[in-house]
Design a protein that fits this description.
This is MFS transporter. By secondary structure, the chain is an all-alpha fold.
Length: 419
């Protein structure tokens, strides 16, 4: 394959997930900052926050369904067309959020419509990440498996920077009233342009060599998920719990901490977003370092390091996430998100290695998205409840427990030959 084709494929795997995560993160940021007051009854601010986080979790329950649907077609019809469809669904759902009426306008219909579009976001993302990973690793030259597999994970910090940077700019030019009234809609509108770019790139790529080879050897499975569960149940289970720490660490470090930092700790919203924006660069650095060393030492070894490091990150929360010390807050975020790179970056290569090509799209999508429910979907809501129940220390123990659980998943397939 020509070098230009390699660059195009890697850019397609990166840009798609960057767009998807941009869409996801603008919702996450809005859910923490403005949705509680806009889409829910005003009788109890704490209940508003809980309900807003509940709508955030809706997408995580849609993601496994999206993984099954898009995985089915990705394993039967190919990676390219499936990736185009997932991007279109995610982009349209995000764009329509910009036009939603608020609770003050239409009452209970407003949060119901919000949940419906949030479900659409999750359905699209459910088919996105797995397909983008396969697009990268199934085109990787020898010795570059994990470095190619890191391109979809790199879409996470790129999308996060774009999303939070957009909100930060709006906060600089709009006052709180303007931001609440109409400013929050602009990032959702802007997603349409990003989706067009993503589609333009993906329509130019070709099918992966692994998929073509699998189709030449045998007809595609009639029901990929049936073959996955009957013949590859252990790696499916192991991959699912192995990815839990990734989601728990990220959504505590971003969604939960944004709300906790601006409300419980009393930091200015724009200032705190700027701190998050700086810290996310450490996640990108962690992904780059982890993928490089994974090609040298193996993905399992690097993931194990990340899972172990998740434990002290959780235990340091109460010491560093304190009012009046943005430096210590930034330190926790930077370390936590750097470790996030080590539990996330190698997943782009590790999860595909667990499954043969004929059911790989379904296998990666199912494991990644089920882990999203366990480790991410309910995490902001659970963390909020834990803080009220016994303080921030309980959230730290929750995060440490996620690291231990993922170690178990890694141990279950230790020594397994790549599929």
């Amino acid at each position: 394959m020509a070098q230009a084709s390699h660059r195009r494929i890697l850019f397609a795997s990166l840009v798609g997930t960057a767009v998807e995560f941009y869409d996801f993160y603008i919702y996450a940021t809005a859910a923490a900052l403005v949705f509680p007051a806009l889409f829910f009854p005003a009788n109890n601010p704490e209940v508003q926050v809980v309900l807003s986080y509940a709508t955030f979790s809706v997408a995580f329950f849609a993601r496994p369904l999206g993984g099954l649907v898009f995985g089915h077609f990705g394993d039967r019809m190919g990676r390219k067309s499936t990736l185009v469809a997932s991007l279109m669904l995610m982009g349209l759902s995000t764009l329509l959020i910009a036009f939603l009426p608020t609770y003050a306008m239409v009452g209970i219909v407003a949060p119901l419509l919000l949940c419906l579009l949030r479900f659409g976001q999750g359905l699209g993302l459910g088919g996105e990440w797995g397909g983008a990973s396969l697009l990268a690793v199934e085109n990787a030259p020898p010795g570059w498996f994990y470095r190619y597999g890191a391109f979809p994970p790199m879409g996470a910090p790129v999308g996060f920077i774009a999303a939070n940077g957009f909100f930060l700019l709006l906060g600089m030019f709009l006052d709180d009233a303007q931001f609440r009234e109409w400013g929050w809609r602009i990032p959702f509108l802007a997603s349409a342009l990003l989706v067009v770019i993503g589609l333009w790139v993906r329509l130019k790529i070709t099918e992966t060599p692994d998929f073509r080879e699998a189709m030449e050897k045998a007809p595609p499975p009639r029901v990929p998920v049936g073959e996955l569960l009957s013949k590859h149940f252990l790696p499916t289970f192991a991959g699912t719990i192995g990815a839990v720490a990734c989601f728990a660490l990220f959504y505590i470090s971003t969604v939960f901490v944004i709300g906790y930092g601006t409300k419980a700790l009393g930091y200015d919203r724009e200032l705190f977003l700027a701190v998050e924006l700086g810290a996310i660069l450490f996640m990108a650095l962690g992904i780059l370092a982890a993928s490089h060393y994974a090609d040298k030492a193996g993905g399992g070894a690097i993931l194990f390091f990340g899972f172990v490091a998740t434990i002290p990150v959780g235990l340091l929360m109460t010491m560093l996430l304190v009012p009046g010390s943005l430096i210590s807050v930034f330190l926790w975020l930077a370390v936590g998100l750097f470790v996030m790179g080590f539990v996330y970056g190698p997943l782009g290569g590790w999860l595909p290695s667990l499954f043969p090509a004929r059911v790989r799209y379904t296998g990666v999508s199912v494991t990644f998205n089920l882990a999203g429910i366990i480790g991410g979907g309910m995490t902001p809501l659970i963390a909020e409840a834990l803080v009220k129940q016994g303080g921030l220390g309980l959230v730290g123990y929750y995060l440490a427990g996620a690291g231990v659980l993922s170690m178990l998943g890694l141990a279950l397939v230790r020594g397994r030959q790549p599929a």
